[in-house]
Amino acid sequence: AQSVTQLGSHVSVSEGALVLLRCNYSSSVPPYLFWYVQYPNQGLQLLLKYTSAATLVKGINGFEAEFKKSETSFHLTKPSAHMSDAAEYFCAVSEISHGNKLVFGAGTILRVKS
Amino acid sequence: DTGVSQDPRHKITKRGQNVTFRCDPISEHNRLYWYRQTLGQGPEFLTYFQNEAQLEKSRLLSDRFSAERPKGSFSTLEIQRTEQGDSAMYLCASSSNTGDEKLFFGSGTQLSVL
Asked: Which A residues 26-85 touch B at CB under 8 Å?
């Protein structure tokens, strides 16, 4: 069965500092991997996805993630945090054979300090 | 394209009452998904449709839950004899089956069972 583990339920960074949100997955087949962001009282918005093309994936708002098969990881990074990045971030894995059904991690709340 | 819309945004009900939520997907999307999200957790898969066919149901979906998508367009999720444990955010998402694995989420319906 697929699963996702997000290390750290809360991460706090200073404005302008590096953002690193960790995600490890397990999957019996080559996975599709996603990062979503959720702002308060809103639905989830796709940041980026990995679907077996380039291992370094660039997304919206300056975020990127690197797929590392040997580490079964898909960590999300941003070189310089902005106050508007404060939100909850979810990593998810899917199998195309299961109708794109997503399995989500528990989420990481990012706080950006001024 | 108005995105995925859900109605109502909030629902407060008494234990034992029935509730029904509606989801209108993006018009050209033939896949529709229901997820449930509780505080501090990632969204959990409940069920999904391809057109009007319900292709998969999670074990989380007890007999009190039923979902329909009668004409392959909008969908409803009904919970009968609500319990306090049903209190959660119910999220709807849609996607195409053209090889794009992205799910687009609505803003959700927040259910509170008193």
From this structure: 32, 34, 36, 41-46, 49, 51
| Token code pair at residue B91 | 């999220």
Beta carbons within 8 Å of B59's beta carbon, 6+ residues apart: none
* Partner B contacted by A105 (CB < 8 A): yes
Are B31 and A100 within 8 A, CB to CB? Answer: yes
The Cα–Cα gap between A102 and A4 comes to: 10
Instruction: Report how far residue B93's alpha carbon sits from residue B105's, in angstroms, rounded to the nearest whole number.
Output: 4
Chain A contact for B45 (CB, 8 A cutoff): yes
Beta-carbon count within 10 A of A61 CB:
12
Q: Where are the beta strands (DSSP E) in A9-61?
A: 10-14, 19-26, 32-38, 44-50, 56-58
> In angstroms, what CA-CA distances link A53 with A25, A49, B51?
18, 10, 29
Q: Tell me the pLDDT of chain A (114 aa) as tens digits.
A: 788 999 999 999 999 999 999 999 988 777 889 999 999 878 899 999 988 778 899 999 999 999 998 999 999 999 999 999 999 999 999 866 666 788 999 999 999 999
Task: Work out whether the CA dihedral A1, B101, A101, B36 comes out positive or negative.
Answer: positive
